[in-house]
Write a structure and sequence with these properties.
It holds the Pfam family Acetyltransf_3. By secondary structure, this protein is of the alpha+beta class. The protein has six helices and eight strands; from the N terminus they run ββαααβββαβαββα. It has one domain: 3-Layer(aba) Sandwich (Aminopeptidase), CATH 3.40.630. It has an eight-stranded mixed β-sheet with strand order 1-2-3-4-5-6-8-7, with helices on both faces. Helix 4 runs antiparallel to helix 6. The longest helix has 16 residues. 34% of the residues are buried.
């Protein structure tokens, strides 16, 4: 039996995280065209529309192998598909996991979808799965992502030099962050406040 139910759905105040499937292909292609994310943000894991089917297939294969639990993020107000996020690097013996491969359509950035998504994912990991550590990582060149992770309250563990290669061939470092279980209550309050501000 899988440690994390691959059919898991999490519902928050702004978004719903539901299991990724190939049924989301057209909506995800449209989402990346919002701001040309797949081409403009070359330093992120956002696929361009032409690669979206392969990206989904890869995540579903990782899910079936027990290595990943991928979600589509849907905005509750209008059922618009916002983007993708995942649980990965799953280690039930600790237990610990990482949250990543996350991207959000351009017009939804800064609207509370990401804080609500992270609140749902971290709460489930810490409170339901008993995780002692939740990790996040990003590329060194993705300064926007690094700033967002640090605003969440995650601590920087270190930099893995020459760790990943972008789709355009550029070699980059990875910046690794973590949140431990005893740090979660303070971060939860911060995330709840951020979500509430977008609802007021």
């Amino acid at each position: 039996m899988a440690w994390i139910d691959p059919g898991l759905t999490l519902t928050g105040r702004i978004v719903r995280l539901e299991p990724l499937s190939m049924d989301h292909l057209d909506a995800l292609r449209e989402a990346t065209r919002d701001g040309d994310l797949g081409d403009r943000l070359w330093w992120t894991s956002t696929p361009n529309p032409e690669r979206m089917a392969d990206d989904i297939a890869g995540k579903l294969a990782a899910r079936d192998a027990g290595r990943m639990v991928p979600f589509v993020c849907v905005r509750l107000a209008d059922e618009q598909v916002v983007g993708v996020t995942t649980y990965y690097d799953l280690e039930p013996s600790v237990p610990r996991l990482e949250i990543g491969y996350t991207w959000t359509r351009d017009s939804c950035q800064g609207t509370g979808t990401n804080p609500d998504s992270k609140r749902l994912l971290i709460a489930h990991a810490m409170e339901e799965l008993g995780c002692q550590r939740v990790g996040l990582r990003t590329k060194w060149t993705n300064q926007q992502s690094r700033a967002a992770i640090e605003r969440l309250g995650f601590r920087r563990d270190g930099v893995l030099r020459g760790y990943a290669r972008h789709a355009n061939g550029v070699l980059d470092d990875a910046v690794v962050y973590s949140l431990l279980s005893h740090e979660w209550p303070a971060v939860r309050r911060r995330l709840e406040d951020r979500v509430a501000r977008h609802l007021s």
